[in-house]
Amino acid sequence: xxxxxxxxxxxxxxxxxxxxxxxxxxxxxxxxxxxxxxxxxxxxxxxxxxxxxxxxxxxxxxxxxxxxxxxxxxxxxxxxxxxxxxxxxxxxxxxxxxxxxxxxxxxxxxxxxxxxxxxxxxxxxxxxxxxxxxxxxxxxxxxxxxxxxxxxxxxxxxxxxxxxxxxxxxxxxxxxxxxxxxxxxxxxxxxxxxxxxxxxxxxxxxxxx
Length: 209
Ligand code: MD5
Ligand code: FE
Known about the structure:
CATH superfamily: Alpha-ketoglutarate-dependent dioxygenase AlkB-like
Oligomer: single chain
Distance between the termini: 34 Å
Number of strands: 13
Largest sheet: 7 strands, antiparallel
CATH architecture: Sandwich
Shape: globular
Mean pLDDT: 97
Number of domains: 1
Helix content: 10-25%
CATH class: Mainly Beta
Bound molecules: N-(carboxycarbonyl)-S-(3-nitrobenzyl)-L-cysteine, fe (iii) ion
């Protein structure tokens, strides 16, 4: 389950009941002050993935409290239960109790993928922190492409991420290029709480105050 140094994939980490509970929170987040939206890339094209943020709002390529690229409203707070879940995730991935206890994620980017959505190869460099990123998937499976830190091209490893999977990116893998090449429609398990599409939650430490 170690894909590269610091990159740990834990299939089926969330129970179906946890997946369902989180999927219900996702619906609430989308009905909060800032709706799901496709972020506009600097070239003028919207992303195919749609995102709602907690704690801090991400817009390419900065974090703010208010979503001034959407409707100017402040995003929902980062929930305490998610801090606790992030610490459990870090402990599961690395087994270091001290590191897990000190993990303090303060933003989550919650991505929704419909059948046609993809995410191009990129690095996550907008955080002023090297702390690990915790990723949780719910709904349809996808093909996740985990690359290298030097280029967006080969070598890379394609990994199928399915409903309930945990992936932690830390250490040498924190700034690796990565993307989602496709969603696999109709693969969501019965009872995961999402009838179609894929949710990915990424918890991060912004390093902002
Ligand atoms: C997703 N999300 O499935 C992917 C997977 C994103 C994003 O890439 O930026 O929202 S989470 C994978 C990820 C996040 C942060 C760092 C690294 C991977 N990494 O260093 O490989 O929606
Ligand atoms: Fe990313």
